[in-house]
Design goal:
421 residues, 22% strand, Alpha-Beta Plaits, four-stranded antiparallel sheet, alpha/beta, single chain, Aminopeptidase, 2 domains
């Protein structure tokens, strides 16, 4: 049980508000992109807070941070808990940060019990802040967790570039991360992630705890149309090769094709970069980031078979050239059954009837689970389902519920309560 006479979240708002203030602008949400100066400040606050709570701090070469509690000895197995501190541009306070700081708070609470002789662990615990989960600055998303579990090569990750052609390697070095520092824990026997739902299912069901049994697949494709720059005034219309027009036709064709043939898929064209981006120059390069999400990868493949010819036709109709600059598929994940059962039982013993559900969004837990690391994803409600927006909110009583369940789960895992591996 939790430490006697102490509410697990009684002091949680202080550290949460401190991290949430980094990169925040009034009315504009929080902008804390991966490997930015703001990200560096948040990492420092997190590291100092965890060190004060008794943790040994380490990071790997891609910048994943580990706050390590070696309760059971150097050679004992590990469990991980965490999420990410990077945000979307003008994002919310809860996405990612809640999971990192809740895990940190739980670990500090358990460490106090360990020092008091009230915890008998057979596993060590690391609280993890994964690098570039959001994929807002560098693509693909889930970068740090993918590198850790071997799904993405370290050198490929470090070579990723943002729109300003800054490589992730250089961005990390600018905030003091240049290679591995400290002894990074080995692959864990289990990974637990607490996250705001980013949907309305928990609110509609009147539940405070969600247990994610599976996640949707996602296909993210970057299409580039290349035309020819020209003066927007004197250049005859017949001579123009307008890449922005091609992109516009491609976006409309994408929306129409998916809506008519695969209406159950979630679709977006959410990012557009045009060059040279002058009001007096016909666009010679237009790059669009397209995304499809669905319960299985097969439907995503069938949808793309319809869409790619439409993209090529947009190029033909505008005298431009189309190329697929990037195309990644994240498979759907089925989370670890034994861990789900442990979370479900633990939630009920703490007075919460959990809701078993699926997640459309991807999380670091997906990268780990798909690589063979047993993982569990716990949701708490999001007010009105708002996410990636300044109004993102999880109520204090729901944060408290998540802290209670997460702490109890980590206690049971550290003391050997589940053989997930």
């Amino acid at each position: 049980m939790l430490s006697a006479g102490k509410s697990p979240g009684s002091n949680f708002p202080a550290i949460f508000d401190e991290v949430a203030s980094i990169g925040a602008q009034p009315g504009e949400g929080v902008t804390r992109l991966a490997a930015s100066s703001e990200d560096g400040m948040a990492r420092s606050v997190f590291a100092n807070w965890m060190a004060e709570g008794g943790a040994r701090i380490a990071h790997d070469a891609v910048g994943n941070q580990f706050a390590c509690f070696e309760w059971a000895g150097k050679d004992a197995p590990w469990i991980f808990a965490g999420s990410h501190l990077d945000t979307q541009p003008r994002g919310g306070r809860f996405d990612g940060s809640l999971g990192v700081l809740a895990a940190g708070y739980a670990a500090r609470d358990l460490h106090a019990d360990f020092l008091a002789g009230c915890l008998d662990p057979i596993r060590n615990l690391a609280v993890v802040n994964w690098t570039n989960e959001e994929g807002a600055r560098f693509q693909p998303s889930l970068t740090g967790s993918a590198v850790f579990c071997g799904a993405l090569a370290l050198e490929d990750a470090l070579a990723l570039q943002d729109v300003g052609t800054v490589a992730l390697r250089d961005a990390l070095a600018a905030i003091g991360i240049d290679g591995e520092n400290g002894e990074v824990p080995p692959q864990p026997e289990a990974y637990i992630e607490l996250h705001a739902e980013q949907g309305r299912k928990l609110l509609e069901a009147g539940r405070r705890i969600g247990i994610v049994e599976g996640t949707w697949a996602a296909r993210k494709t970057t299409i580039k149309w290349t035309g020819r720059a020209a003066h927007t005034g004197p250049t005859p219309m017949a001579d123009r090769r307008d890449a922005l027009l091609a992109a516009a036709l491609g976006i409309v064709a994408f929306e129409a094709a998916v809506a008519s043939s695969f209406p159950h898929l979630h679709r977006s064209a959410a990012r557009l970069v045009v060059e040279p981006n002058s009001p007096n120059v016909v666009v010679d390069r237009a790059t669009v980031w397209f995304e499809l999400r669905g319960p299985n990868a097969e439907d995503l493949d069938r949808a793309w078979q319809l869409i790619v010819p439409a993209f090529k036709k947009a190029a033909e109709d505008t005298g431009t050239r189309m190329e697929i600059a990037a195309d990644t598929l994240r498979a759907a994940a089925n989370m670890e059954t034994a861990l789900l059962a442990l979370v479900e039982e633990t939630a009920r013993t703490r007075g919460f009837e959990p809701l078993t559900m699926h997640s459309v969004a991807g999380h670091d837990a997906v990268a780990l689970q798909n690589s063979g690391i047993p993982s569990a994803l716990i949701f708490v409600p999001s007010v009105d389902g708002i996410a990636h927006h300044p109004e993102e909110l999880t109520q204090p009583e729901d944060v408290e519920a998540g802290l209670v369940v997460l702490t109890a789960v980590l206690r049971r895992l550290s003391e050997g309560g589940c053989h997930a591996g």
